[in-house]
């Protein structure tokens, strides 16, 4: 193990050395989470101020439509009668990711993945907690519509990005949160 030195020349070993290697990943994760969360809030504020729900805006020849809706449910408007439960689940997910996952990250790809996940959870959870019709019953602001697909928002895009990157890291690169390989690649000579 390479020894680091603290002020005064004392060696930093053990927990201090590990903490110094882990901290950048945590900061990257939390930074992406905060930036994504703020981006979601700013975009939703602009959408609410400028989009009329009765007059959607068609872009790119109809490939994208900006259509403001208030979604009481989850993805694809499922669970519209369970808004309070969805809010409680989102709070639990946010706490679990912050307490159990973020401290274990030791890989840049997973830092990006979990940062995107935090941004998405926090963005939609904020709507549920603070938007009408009231706390724990708030409707999520959705506004991006693709042909034959659900209407979604920036937070949903972060959650989707987290899922795609997480699948890539798990299935293709096969790397864990702590940066170790999940299984060794098969060598051509081993086949």
What attributes characterize this protein structure?
alpha+beta, 4-stranded antiparallel sheet, 12% strand, globular
Please, could you describe this protein's structure?
The protein is α+β, with helices and mostly antiparallel strands and 191 residues long. The chain has one domain. Helix content is 51%, strand content 12%. It has four helices and six strands, in the order E-E-H-E-E-H-H-E-E-H. The strands form two sheets. A four-stranded antiparallel sheet has the order 3-4-5-6. It has a two-stranded antiparallel sheet with strand order 1-2. Helix 2 runs antiparallel to helix 3. The longest helix is centred in the first third of the chain and has 36 residues, at 15-50. The model has no long low-confidence stretch (mean pLDDT 88).
Distance between the termini: 35 Å
Strand element count: 6
Proportion of residues in β-strands: 5-15%
Give the overall form: globular
Cα Rg: 21 Å
**Helix-strand makeup class:** alpha+beta
Q: Which series of helices and strands comes N to C?
A: EEHEEHHEEH
For the biggest sheet, the summary is: 4 strands, antiparallel
What's the average pLDDT? 88
């Amino acid at each position: 193990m390479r020894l680091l030195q603290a002020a005064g020349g004392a060696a930093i070993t053990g927990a201090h050395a590990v903490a110094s290697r882990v901290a950048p990943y945590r900061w990257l994760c939390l930074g992406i989470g905060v930036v994504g969360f703020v981006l979601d809030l700013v975009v939703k504020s602009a959408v609410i101020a400028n989009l009329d729900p009765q007059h959607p805006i068609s872009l790119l020849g109809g490939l994208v439509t900006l259509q403001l809706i208030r979604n009481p449910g989850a993805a694809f408007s499922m669970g519209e009668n369970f808004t309070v439960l969805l809010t409680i689940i989102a709070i639990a997910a946010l706490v679990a990711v912050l307490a159990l996952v973020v401290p274990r990250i030791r890989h840049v790809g997973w830092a990006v993945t979990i940062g995107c996940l935090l941004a998405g959870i926090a963005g939609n959870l904020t709507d549920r907690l603070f938007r009408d019709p009231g706390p724990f019953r708030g409707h999520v602001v959705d506004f991006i519509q693709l042909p034959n697909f659900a209407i979604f928002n920036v937070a949903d895009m972060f959650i989707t990005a987290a899922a795609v990157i997480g699948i890539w890291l798990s299935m293709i690169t096969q790397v864990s949160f702590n940066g170790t390989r999940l299984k060794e690649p098969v060598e051509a000579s081993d086949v």
